[in-house]
């Protein structure tokens, strides 16, 4: 039980750090999306879904600028369909 709690706390801390890093780069994502590391895959009035072209991990960004990793029901990051980490990707 304690191990599961500590793992959850560690995962939340990691996601917060990653989210903070992405918020700092949010202007870069909006200004030059095609040339950046991130690709916009869904956009509406409230949310944007962005994929990291190096890792295949999907992120959601709300209208206020907050960014969060999308996770599945098991707590794993959602990967863009068809992404293969073994392929070389120019960034």
Descriptive notes:
The protein has a 4-stranded antiparallel β-sheet. The protein is 32% helix and 22% strand. It is globular. It has helices spanning 2-24, 26-31; strands at 38-43, 47-52, 58-62, 67-69. The chain is of the alpha+beta class and 91 residues long. The chain contains 2 helices and 4 strands, in the order ααββββ. A hairpin with a 5-residue loop joins strand 2 (47-52) and strand 3. It has one domain. Mean pLDDT is 75; it is low at 30-34.
Secondary structure layout:
Layout: H1 2-24, H2 26-31, E1 38-43, E2 47-52, E3 58-62, E4 67-69
Antiparallel strand pairs: 1-2, 2-3, 3-4
Helical proportion, percent range = 25-40%
The fraction of residues in strands falls at 15-25%
Give the strand line-up of the largest sheet: 1-2-3-4
Largest sheet: 4 strands, antiparallel
Notable traits:
91 residues; alpha+beta; 22% strand; globular
Structure described in brief:
The protein has one domain. About 5% of the residues have low confidence.
């Amino acid at each position: 039980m304690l191990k599961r709690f500590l793992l959850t706390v560690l995962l939340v801390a990691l996601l917060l750090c990653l989210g903070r890093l992405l918020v700092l780069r949010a202007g870069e994502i909006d200004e030059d999306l095609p040339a950046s590391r991130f690709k916009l895959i869904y956009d509406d009035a409230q949310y944007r879904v962005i994929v990291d072209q190096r890792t295949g991990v999907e992120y959601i960004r709300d209208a206020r600028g907050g960014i969060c990793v999308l996770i599945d029901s098991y707590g794993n990051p959602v990967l863009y369909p068809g992404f293969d980490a073994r392929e070389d990707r120019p960034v």
